[in-house]
Amino acid sequence: MRSSLAFSLPLSLALLTPHPVMAQAAVDSALGAYIASIRAIDTHAHPMRPVATGEPADSEYDALPLDGIPPFGFPHRLTQEDPIWQRAQFALYGVPIAMPDSARKSALDAAVTGNIAKRGLHFPEWALDEAGVDVMFANRVAMGPGLDTPRFRWIAFVDALMLPLDTRAEGTTPDTRVLYPRETRLLRRYLRDLGITRTPGTPGTLAEYVRRVVTPTLERQRAAGAIAVKFEAAYLRPLDFADPDSAQAARVYAHYSSGGVPTHAEYKALEDYLFRVIARAAGRLGMSVQIHSLETFGSYYKSAGAAPHLLEPTFNDSTLRGTNFVVIHGGWPLVNETQALLAKPNVYTDISAMDLILSPTELARVLRQWLGEFPDKVLYGSDAFDGGTEQGWEQVAWVGSMTARRALGIALTGMMRDGEISRSRAEALARMVLRENAITAYRLSGVSR
Ligand SMILES: [Zn+2]
Fold first, then answer.
1. Domain residue spans in the chain?
2. According to the 3-state scheme, what is the secondary structure of the chain?
3. How far is the CA of 276 from the centre of ligand 1 (A)?
4. What mean pLDDT do residues 370-390 have?
5. What spacing in Å lies between the alpha carbon of 402 and ligand 1's midpoint?
């Protein structure tokens, strides 16, 4: 097991490179070394709290964990079939590649368990060091011991605030029937945090709900250190948040706040209104807004409803220009739609999950396309999530970081060789994507450039 970052990073990059000769052709070696040395800001991830044996498992890593929905397909690179995971396990735990399956499983189990026990609350920090990450944004319901500032920053979930009424008519697929009740439980938790025990009719009007629940919850999240809020709405409904009709929203809320199930059209009017209220208030409080936009996950997931272009009316709302938005996961595979939105001054995107799903070569193509037009709008993220011993979040964070760095190396080397940019500009672009753009997009204070 290695501990020196300076030693492990270039070696780790080499692990992603099947043929050293071709690698030299794809990535300028000095530029590759420079990229490997950048301490990144990972703007989207789900790190786990270290839990001692006997303690309950960490269940706060996502507002919408997907383990309760029917089985669904994973992109190939996220499955254990892909050799990238063995490379991660070799880099982090020294488990030899090409070991027989059963021996590899027990070697890995022993290495992971031993490492967690040895590092205790410092395990998350160790994971960041191994991935060359300085700061990781944690998309979590709540933070906890081991996930402390300055290495970790909190991003809170806010979809639940859009859903104050009975959602029983909204869950129309086997996926959403499982997911809506999770939002209901999370809203109950937010209300409890505010000291509101919900009895029918409380709060009775929409204005009161916004004043007593929405705004104070966002203020609490901000005060507890949240730098941004996240919408996972695409798992529940299309991202077509319409220009809100506030009178209609108020009528719907007043009619159903003490009971009854709104129709879908009624609920949509209320959600569309609250979405913008939340986004506007977040901006006022200095928090950016992340929106999940990706082809997957879930076998009943509506990928068309996650298309980046559906967000254009939101991004064109002049009352929301004080809020920075980040199209999470690059809107993959609709990266052209995402690119078109980056012209708006307050819209950014990140490559989280793309650097898990795509090969470095494929990701390089997208990066080169985006960096040619909007180099200050593209952010690094991994979407590191936990998949147990064989795909722990520390492994996912490592894979995301190594893939993104290699992809950047390929894209920037190509631009340099084609005479589009100088070497110093290539280095600047690498710093922007891996670190500096995040400081602007999330208005981070206390982090150097
Ligand atoms: Zn995520």
1. 5-441
2. CCCCHHHHHHHHHHHCCCCHHHHHHHCCHHHHHHHHHCCEEEEEECCCCCCCCCCCCCCCCCCCCHHHCCCCCCCHHHCCCCCHHHHHHHHHHCCCCCCCHHHHHHHHHHHHHHHHHHHHHHHHHHHHHHHCEEEEEEECCCCCCCCCCCCEEEEEECHHHHCCCCCCCCCCCHHHHHHHHHHHHHHHHHHHHCCCCCCCCCCCCHHHHHHHHHHHHHHHHHHCCEEEEEECHHHCCCCCCCCCCHHHHHHHHHHHCCCCCCCHHHHHHHHHHHHHHHHHHHHHCCCEEEEECCCCCCCCCCHHHHCHHHHHHHHCCHHHCCCCEEEEHHHCCCHHHHHHHCCCCCEEEECCCHHHHCCHHHHHHHHHHHHHHCCCCEECCCCECCCCHHHCHHHHHHHHHHHHHHHHHHHHHHHHHCCCCCHHHHHHHHHHHHHHHHHHHCCCCCCCC
3. 21
4. 96
5. 18
The whole-number pLDDT of residue 199 equals 65
* pTM for the full predicted model: 0.94
Distance 257 CA to ligand 1 centre (A): 31
CA of 234 relative to ligand 1 center, distance in Å: 12
Q: Give me ligand 1 centre to Cα 327, in Å.
A: 12
CATH topology of domain 5-441: TIM Barrel (3.20.20)
17: pLDDT confidence band, cut at 50, 70 and 90?
Answer: low
